[in-house]
Write a structure and sequence with these properties.
single chain, alpha+beta, Immunoglobulin-like, 3 domains, 3 helices, 20% helix, rod-shaped, disordered N terminus
Length: 252
């Protein structure tokens, strides 16, 4: 009789082992542990995104193992798409799934998007998520033009000596364009350098060295000669200097 019972125990043991193998190979879940009400979930969002940028929101399960089920209802406002109420659930599988991620796109204007919702493990009470805010920003990206021509005034009037050339300082500027269209002005010189000092040279080449050539054109016109004549009348230039200016005008 004892031998018979021993044989039966062996047989049942073999059957149980075969059943275990069958469940494992067929993908059928063997209950291990249900939710007990202490499980939690977190929602992770980026602090800020560029306008129009795609970003990810992730939900993570904490403290759950074995066979469990959690439902989530979340509402998105502020223009991040897809906008509105979103519902989903997470159930375990043999890999014991612990998280879920979703992709959103920020609006094309700056502002903020908010996520408000709750989750529920099995039959236990609803638990509110905290409100998460994603700031939608616009970071300027500057494209700078080349420097414009260095502009300075070349004024030969009231020079005491007859110079072949002289140099003066001026300012040159360049524009910058915001490639991201943030709507802000380029006011930081470290970005593009909106203006800088420059050196401008004015040279003249006339047959006769004369300060009558006040516009650095290389010739003395009739107006310049008339002004120079007035300076001679007022004793500001010599008759020889006036003669040089007159000769320069005559020679063109």
């Amino acid at each position: 009789m004892a031998k018979k019972q021993k044989n039966l125990r062996i047989i049942f043991g073999v059957i149980a082992f075969i059943a275990l193998l069958y469940f494992m190979m067929s993908g059928t879940k063997i209950p291990t542990q249900a939710v007990i009400g202490t499980e939690t979930m977190t929602r992770s969002v980026p602090l800020s995104v560029e306008k129009g940028e795609t970003f990810t929101v992730t939900y993570d399960v904490i403290g759950a193992s074995g066979n469990y089920f959690v439902s989530v209802v979340d509402t998105v406002t502020g223009g991040c798409t897809p906008i509105g109420e979103h519902s989903f659930f997470i159930a375990d599988d043999y890999a014991f799934k612990q998280s879920e991620s979703f992709t959103y796109t920020a609006p094309s204007i700056i502002g903020e998007c908010t996520f408000i919702g709750d989750y529920k493990f099995g039959e236990f009470a609803l638990i509110q998520f905290g409100t998460d805010t994603v700031n939608v920003v616009c970071t300027p990206s500057w494209s700078c033009s080349t420097w414009d021509t260095c502009m300075a005034t070349c004024d030969w009037l009231d020079k005491d000596t007859c110079l072949d050339s002289f140099t003066t300082t001026g300012t040159q500027t360049r524009t910058c364009t915001d490639l991201n269209s943030c709507g802000v002005s380029c006011t930081n010189p470290s970005l593009c350098g909106n203006s800088q000092s420059c050196t401008y040279s004015c040279s003249r080449t006339v047959n006769k060295n004369t300060e009558a050539d006040t516009d650095c054109s290389g010739t003395v016109d009739r107006t310049e000669l008339g002004l120079y004549g007035e300076k001679w009348i007022n004793g500001l230039v010599t008759r020889t200097e006036l003669g040089l200016a007159g000769q320069a005008w005559a020679e063109g």
